[in-house]
Amino acid sequence: MKRNLVIITSFSFISAFLGLLGCENDRNIDVICKNNPELCADLHKDSWCRFEKGDLVRHRLVLKKAATPSGQQLFQQLIYLENYSNCIELAAGVQHILNPQRTQDRERAFAVSTQTLSELREYTKNNTDVYLAYYRWLRFNDKPSQDIVIAAYEKNSISDPQILNQLAAYYVRVSPSEAKRIYRDLFAQTSFDKFNSDWLLGLASIFQQQQNFEYVYLFTKANTLLTDNQVDEKQLLGLIGGNQVLAQALDRQAQALILDLKSDNFANTASATLLNNPENTQE
Question: Where on the tree of life does the source sit, at the highest rank (predicted)?
Fold first, then answer.
């Protein structure tokens, strides 16, 4: 009987500053804006969205210092612009009773940020750099851009975990065995402080397709050990037919998996061997 997977409840402005040279090394946003006013002129003035604004300004300084911005740098600028624009859009909807010009300033900043984002997207739309192709695939499901990323992967020229994560999600549908290989590589190549617990659920979904319910249990359990995700324990146990002895063994394996992920040598751990041979799950 098939069991269900457990449910876990304006670029013209940018162009101007890209070519500028600067020598400001201070990371404080106020100092950066004081010494590089062109980097902040289009942004709002008050303290709303300070993290998003800070990331955007600091990265603009990186671009200002770059003789020729790389595809990865432009990709990151797109992400920071998106984050800032989304945040200031919400802030623009908050009416400031005593100081209405602050609301107007946020509205202006939002309008400019959307235009800048649109222009940067247009500027990079034909760039074949893998990071910019990845961005277009991620945001617009652009098939030619997807093909660029897949071709780069097939040449073993992609190592960035976020791009590999997107590829794994793609291969889950078209080649589960390739998706498993990507996840195993991510486990082995990614330091624990950068480990994405959703990769465990990605593996669980693959084994769900293959009706390997012991592994669905194992990776779902490991995910709950790493996160605050809640799971229906009765439903989880139902995956393995209510077998309490097997559940205890799989719980120990999930805990061991977490310890191995925290090690500096996952590729040579017992968990890595188990991933290469899923049929060896022990009761």
Answer: Bacteria
